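Researcher: Good morning. I'm working through a list of sequences from a screen, and I'd like to move beyond sequence-only analysis. For each chain I'm collecting a predicted structure so we can compare shapes side by side. This is the next one on the list. No need for commentary yet; just the structure.
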Amino acid sequence: MDYIAHIRKHDKQIQTVDDHLREVKQLCEHYGAKIGVVHLAGLSGWLHDLGKNTIRFYDYIQAAVFDPEHAPSKGSVDHSTAGGKLLYDRYVQQQGISARSVAAEWIGNCIISHHQGLRNFVDGEQTSPYLDRVQWSKRDEQKRWQLQQDYEQACRVFWERESVDTFDHYVTQAANEFASVMEKIHHSLQVQHRPIVEALTTKYIFSCLIDADRHNSRLFEEGKPSAPTDELEIAQSFFQRAYDHLLAHLAKLEQTAKAGEPINRLRREMSRQCEQFAAKPSNVYTLSIPTGGGKTLASLRYGLRHALDHGKERIIYIVPYTTIIEQNAQEIRKLLPEADRDLILEHHSNVVDEIDPQHDDVDEQQQRIRLARDYWDRPIIFTTMVQFLNTFYAKGTRNTRRLHRLANAVLIFDEVQAVPIKCISLFNMALNFLQTIGRSSIVLCTATQPALDVVENPITLPPDSEIVSNLAEVNTSFKRVEIIDRTTVSGWDASEISDFVGECMEQANSCLIILNTKIAVRRLYDQLKQTYAEQGRQVALFHLSTNMCAAHRKEMLEKMKKKLEASRKHPQHSEQVICVSTQLIEAGVDISFECVIRSLAGLDSIAQAAGRCNRHGEDRLRQVYIIRAQDEVLSRLPEIRIGGEQTNRILDEIRRGVAQDVEILSPANLRMYFQYYYQQIKNDMDYTVNKLEQSLFTLMNSNADYVGAYVNKHGVKFPLYSKASFATVEQYFEVIDSKTYSIIAPYNENARELIADLMGERRRIDLGAVFRELQQYMVNVYDQAFKKLSDEGYIKPVFEGQVLILLENAYSDEYGIDLEGTADLSVLIG
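Model: Good morning. Structure tokens for this chain:
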């Protein structure tokens, strides 16, 4: 008989188990080929739904579709264990540790976990959830008997259709691939870092399976054929067109009136060096172009040339702040014809929370939302550091599904110094995996390289990893500001900062003030507004924070740029411009003020702030002032607090005449700053979870404590090679500690129309397109702010509470969501 994998909702057509397994296997092989794990990935697809080859599942799915009122409960028929158990019984249980047995461990865990997330090989309860599942050790006798009957039937059906010799040969090929992966890992990495990269390879295969399974199910539901898309061919064609347009754009810049200026000549030279460097093999490289040095287009030039020369499928920009996504994506889109612009994907916030059904028969609405999400299928992608880290370590199959898209790619990390402290070791190992096994080329971009190669768990950098060959000359030539220390022990309140702004505006027509918290920004903004109103003076006063949605911030920045241009061209006849902002404006925003005031923070943040002053060398030299703001409470912002303390240490050394250099932002002082900074946080880089008395890094790596506890309890040698506690890591991993909620703001007419689509009866709208467009109207708020908005009735949940919409009277054109927050770290929320 033909056993059933899926029944299409609208016409009740059947997808057989044979067809589904064959098609998912084919997709898995396609995804696995990128890193040389064709058969490892293919094996996961071949067996993942083996357990559907039973009469019980046949009856179950028929009843679920045709007689739902009398259907068995969801999950009553286990179909995801059989494939993993077959591998365990045949290759793990009786064979000891070998290439075959470890490959079977990896693939078996992927199969039994494909409706949730990878199970722990060992956990804190001295058990092995993986073994419990494939041995049914925690089931009662009657349940075990039923599971065994189903399992034996599923295997009989499988062996009736498949040759044992063919299958064993396929497993042997998978084992050979495993051995090749292990050889690469052992050749490239230190002993203490090998297990975590092995674990991430397992996650990569899991990603292939999740994406292939979901993708095939979607294509069947839509009545479309299932066949791998030649993404490489599409990408290469697009990259060539984009490269040609980029070179044409750069040629035009060489013909402009300002092309001969020294700063523009330097930008062209660094861009040219990026092109030449692209010929080198894939590896991890640094690009230390100073702020304002044309980093976006220079890194794109490297990315396109390297992708073309080395056959890469994707260029992915990973940035710390959503504001950088908006600007950089727009800058690149402007280079391309209209027809190609949709091939660039901006992945901001997630519009809906994870819907990760345990079983296939979820309701139609949930299925449509789940399938509508972006999964990084474009040649150029802009995303955030949060989304990148979530792909490797966060819970939910949606995150892991994207992981295989990071392979055979060019990954450009913008402002890489912004990696959260607790995630540094996990981040470094993800990069080591992508370079060693993932065949990706990685570029670490920042004007202030954070020396991630000298920490305890470092990124593996090759010799001569810096792309710019003449950094000392470049830094000297790019000097456009002088940094002036105006910090005091007690700091200034909003009134005192306002007075200082007034002093600065006597010498400048524009001033940017960057403070560390939204409360401090709001108070200073209100103080300046009051002061200038009392004086009867007209100024263009702007307020920026992440209480505003991306579209709002973008519009504000465009208005500000026009005001700044007018004030520079016609200083006597235009308004002065003042902007008070959180750190969201520091990185990736192409804007230039005549004066910048920065509240004490890390020296890298000071450097970023300085990049907003005299950005294009309009004047020979302009001033950037460091102050201390009284209104900032940094007790819950340790990274900013520690960074500020170490900056103050450098400033104190300069005051006492013992610093290596009197220039605050000299390379020597920056390196010393990072040494001090890393010394302070050395015990915090591995993501320690106090409740577990373990670090997530260790749980993904050697996991010695959990393995030792298991051995002590059971009195036997640990029976598996693999030791990672995947599920525990996923349970506790959060890039941002505080829970946040993504809320859609009715900022403008377009936002309101999209909201109306979601709330209306048009249930066949293209949810994927609507969700992508809605990303620009998202505001992320912390739990306390969300509770206040919810309690006061300002939030309307739709789609059974999975999408949150803000009512119009809770959103201000001046402040965005009009709530005072304690910090602006929500810029990091992906």
